[in-house]
Design a protein that fits this description.
- It comes from Galbitalea soli.
- The protein contains 13 helices and two strands, in the order H-E-E-H-H-H-H-H-H-H-H-H-H-H-H.
- It is an all-alpha fold and about 300 residues long.
- It has one domain: MetI-like (MetI-like fold), CATH 1.10.3720.10.
- A two-stranded antiparallel ribbon has the order 1-2.
- The radius of gyration is 27 Å and the shape is globular.
């Protein structure tokens, strides 16, 4: 053996990693998801076929699809569903449009940009309880809005009872939803705008495209995935509105501003009709799933046409 070169080191064979290791890391999260989401959902689906009794020892009676038939024949359910639809339609488009407008304004770097980002995003991280009670105070009969419009600016002949009529109460709830959600849409769009390649905009500028033409032909197609994501999430969130309605109007007057979740909550936890409440929850879940699938399919087909 040549002493200059020394002994040749022997390569150590690496121990193969167990294929089960990734699943062991996923197991706690999956277990929590099954226990907290899947199992309660399956239980609610089962309860919807019973006249469910919560008293110890009481026997729940199987009634089949009677709870679903009752829901489709219930005028109060259809009213709550229409209120949910109105809220969704009145909040989704404004949140996306205003959020995109603000994101475009904040795209350019400036010393004040971080401050404005925080200010616009602050309502998003504020508790629903806090902002709902704030709006309830602002639009009370002797609240700040009436004082400003009637006593200060003299734009109205008398105070408006905003929360005592279905139309005006829904306006207040929709304004709250828009104000609280614009910051989230702004952040999603801002992240998408920062990912648009500058070379595309420069090429369009060289071709003589104006600001609006560049925005419509270059920016909007580039941020289309963010638009699809936002539209789906906001539609789901709009149909699942609950806290603001419960805290601002409580479904009043006389259930006129109830949405699907607040009506479900009333039936299940105030009247203890858990079977009927579960049926309403299942109907809403199916409706949300169908709308989400339709949205994804429509946007995908439109994206393929543009491509």
């Amino acid at each position: 053996m040549d002493r200059a070169t020394g002994p040749v080191p022997v390569a150590r064979s690496r121990r193969p990693r167990s294929s089960a290791t990734p699943y062991l890391f996923l197991l706690p999260g999956v277990a929590i998801f099954v226990i907290a989401i899947i199992w309660p959902a399956l239980q609610a689906f089962r309860m919807s076929f019973y006249h469910w009794q919560i008293m110890a020892g009481a026997i729940s009676q199987w009634i089949g699809v009677d709870n679903y038939v009752r829901a489709f024949r219930d005028p109060a359910f259809w009213l709550s569903l229409s209120n949910s639809g109105i809220y969704m339609l009145a909040t989704v488009i404004p949140q996306m449009a205003i959020g995109l407008f603000i994101a475009v304004l904040l795209k350019r770097r400036s010393p004040s940009q971080p401050l404005f980002r925080v200010l616009y995003y602050l309502p998003v991280i504020t508790s629903w309880v806090v902002v709902s009670l704030l709006f309830k105070y602002l639009f009370a009969d002797r609240g700040l809005v009436n004082f400003t419009l009637h006593d200060f600016l003299h734009l109205m002949h008398s105070d408006v009872s905003w929360l005592s009529e279905r139309g005006t109460a829904l306006i207040v709830i929709c304004l709250l939803g828009i104000w609280k959600g614009v910051g989230w849409s702004m952040m999603i769009y801002l992240a998408a705008l920062q990912g648009v390649p500058e070379s595309l905009e420069e090429a369009a500028l060289v071709d003589g495209a104006g600001p609006w033409q560049r925005f419509r032909a270059v920016t909007l197609p580039a941020i289309n995935p963010a638009t699809v994501f936002l539209s789906v999430m906001l539609v789901i969130g709009g149909l699942n509105v609950f806290a603001s309605v419960e805290l601002v109007t409580g479904g009043g007057p006389v259930g006129q501003t109830d949405v699907v979740l607040s009506y479900m909550y009333t039936q299940a936890f105030r009247y203890l009709d858990f079977g009927y409440g579960s049926a309403i929850a299942v109907i809403l879940a199916v409706l949300v799933f169908v709308l989400a699938v339709l949205q994804l399919r429509i946007t995908r087909d439109r994206g393929e046409e543009l491509a």
